[in-house]
Amino acid sequence: MKRRGPVERRGPVERCGRVERRGRVERRGRVERRAVAALCTLALALPAAALIPQAERIVAEVAKTNAASKRDTALRFELSMWIGDDQPLANGELITHPTGLARLELRGGGGLVERHLLQGSEHTTARDGELVHSPRAFLPPLFLLQADSPAVLSAALASLGVRAGQVGLEPCAESECFVLGRPPGARGSDLVSGDDGEGTEGEFGGPELLSPAEAFQGASSDAPASDAPTVWVDAESYEIRELSTASGVRVLLGPTAAYDSVRAPRWWVIEEPGKRPVRFEIRRVMRVDAPAAVFSQSWLMAPAAPAEVGPGPEAP
Hints:
- By secondary structure, this protein is α+β, with helices and mostly antiparallel strands.
- It folds into two domains: about 45 residues; about 250 residues, outer membrane lipoprotein receptor (LolB), chain A, CATH 2.50.20.
- Helix content is about 25%, strand content about 25%.
- It has five helices and 15 strands.
- The strands form two sheets. It has a 13-stranded antiparallel beta sheet. It has a two-stranded antiparallel ribbon with strand order 12-13.
- A hairpin with a 5-residue loop joins strand 9 and strand 10.
């Protein structure tokens, strides 16, 4: 009888070893695939807070965008005011300063002149030289669009009561917005761009056109009130898209356009509880020199035309 050599005796053992090693490789592959699947599931289940940058970074990016858009100095807006889409109810001029000073003059039919003045947190209005005790919120805090450093922007947000340390994430038109002042998971309006929103692109409460006096005084509306001041920031461009106050005033800012060296919104819409939304369309924007005297109570009450404001320095 022929004896098996030592190599032949090891053959089955080697074969079993190969089978065992192959089994370990297959088991390790299954474990790895399961781990990858678990990681993917976890990523999809992450809360919105995990996808939101730190508030400090958002504020810094907004300030950088403001500076890059050459809005870091006093600006003059030539604009028209609309309710409905037939014709503008008034034409006007708005001058805003990064320090929070601003003024707006509107001229409507019949020689009606209304002026708004913002000095810090104080907003006063005069119509035809007489104080208005319950004015419309026609003068939004555009100085947020002019703050060119994180420190200045943070101070401006705090002055409006916005808790910038709380940041939520919301859909806005075709993009998403970081919502300063809203904790993650809290829900608010689902649209900030008037391009897709009913009532912000031409139809403001019906086809009939209000008289200038009715527009200035306000008419009934169902605009919802806000529960906390918020600022909506586009997650891609870091442009401010919406502002809201604790009193329920909501300002929607349109897409930006180039006005010579300055980039600024093409329009904005102001919604107030109990009043019709009002749309301001921008015709021209320029950098200007605007000393403190331009934003004075004497200008507010003066019957004559406002003082001349010379062109400002050219943007570098």
